[in-house]
Design goal:
Shape: globular
Low-confidence stretches: none
Structural class: alpha/beta
Number of domains: 2
Helix content: 10-25%
Strand content: 15-25%
Radius of gyration: 21 Å
Distance between the termini: 36 Å
Mean pLDDT: 78
Order of helices and strands: EEHEEHEHEEEHEH
Largest sheet: 5 strands, mixed
Strand order of the largest sheet: 8-7-6-5-9
Length: 194
Amino acid sequence: MVGFDHSYKQPKKALEGDVIDQREDDENHFDPRYFRGKKWQAADTANMEHTYELSKAAFEKDGREVVNCTVGGKLEVFRRGDLATELNIVGKRPKKPPVSIKTEDYPKLLLIDITQLGDCTTTGELKQNLLKDWPVGKLLHFYSLVQQQIGVSPEGKDQALLMQQILSTAKTFDPDVILYRPVADNMKLHETPM
């Protein structure tokens, strides 16, 4: 496991699934903006701990092990380890330089996902890192904005779009590949006919 701090602050009377309207900075994630201005569901942290204990027992019964490679955090159910050491990549270097891909070899990628690239959410940061070398003009991203609006980020220029603009923009872009991640938080995003 990587990046799991296992530490939550939520209202004391909150029950699992209760909706919390986060107005202030978010103390539960690596960036205070993560859930600020958003709604999230309360967690049952005691049940989560029990689930990790069950997972550990199941893996060990099968002769496998879950290792916690998170730096810091409060998850102590699993053995702690250093990620590079656990993956056995310490001191190893590739024998050949990585192959460079020509811009024209990249497909035109239409990404439809609730989170914006690099927006301080886990998936936003992950996508930003995975797609950081994607050529300008080969990536179009539709994502959620406030109040059920849909944003678009072609070449890093963010703007809110109307339905007609969304369809026209996607048609003009003419993607080779569509990556769609359905998340129920913004029905307008998912009801958009592509």
